Amino acid sequence: MDNEADDQTHPVINVEEFIGKTVGRRKPAAPFTSKGWDREAMIRLREGFGGVRIPRGVFRFRTHEEADRWMIQTTAKAAARG
Fold first, then answer.
1. Residue ranges of the domains in the chain?
2. How far is the first Cα of the chain from the last one, in angstroms, to the nearest whole number?
3. Which of 14, 21, 50, 61 could cross-link with 66 by S-S, CB 3.0 to 4.6 Å?
């Protein structure tokens, strides 16, 4: 019975143990490349399709349903414009 109480009071992992070796290697993230596109070309492409149609910014909603309703209405207005 003494053994059972002892198992519950000691942690399973020794948090003070020193980890001597790490296996593997972490690779740094690759830099972002736009595959030949520069900023001016991206702006011209966006303007060619009518610019940004969805308002930018942070929008807060009480529920997911309210957010979905707003998104559908905004997308419909943008589609109607052009």
1. 58-82
2. 78
3. 61
